[in-house]
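Run log, item B.
One chain of 236 residues. Sequence copied directly from the ordering sheet:
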Amino acid sequence: MTAQEAVAGVKDGMTIMVGGFLATGSPEILMDALVEKGVKHLTIIANDGGLDAGQPGGEFAGKTSRGVGKLLDHHMVDHIIASHIGVNPKLNEQFAEGTLTYTLVPQGTLAEKIRAAAYGLGGILTPTGVGTMMQTEKDELGRDKKVVEIEGKKYLFEMPLHADYSFIRPTKADKFGNFMCAKATKNFNYVMAGASDHTIIAPEFLYEIGELDPDTYDVAGVLVEGIVEGEKKWQI
């Protein structure tokens, strides 16, 4: 399908997962299509806010924003659930303006909450956050936290994190949707596959079924609903 067809079902207020780590491994063609569509009031689940084109002295100064940063450029995000927010200044600017809220989740916890949704788990147990404000605060969706003690050790019970859409950028995929991501682009792309109602991939290279050894692929195409061609070569 085209990128425009892939985002046709995205509506204002939906929750979107976007793979990538500082836009490394983010599907730029799908971010561009969302900007073109002009949806608003999104909740974004991602590692971070992508990269901003205008970062002074940065590698990307004068270039386009990357990943989730494109959505922030157009004030499309009301809430972001992420591991860190310190790189893209637009996050804190929009927070200060009162147009955006954010929930910080420890990176490993965020990944496992997403994985739990993808694989049908009721939640995960983690010691991260025990004895801190995380133990008493509600989670990113307003759900109460629970403390579980096992063999004398306390854990937080963290519930799954699900979305309407997952947008993922593989390096290689076949036409069934089996895919792999090279090197650092694996990041959140693998755990987000299947953690939403609709998983859309935008691979850099697309192959016929059976053209490559099946062991090339790390994620099964049964988790993928749509494939978008045209993703440019990795530009970071």
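Observations after the first pass:
- The two ends are 25 Å apart (CA to CA).
- The chain has a mean pLDDT of 94.
Flagged for discussion on Thursday.
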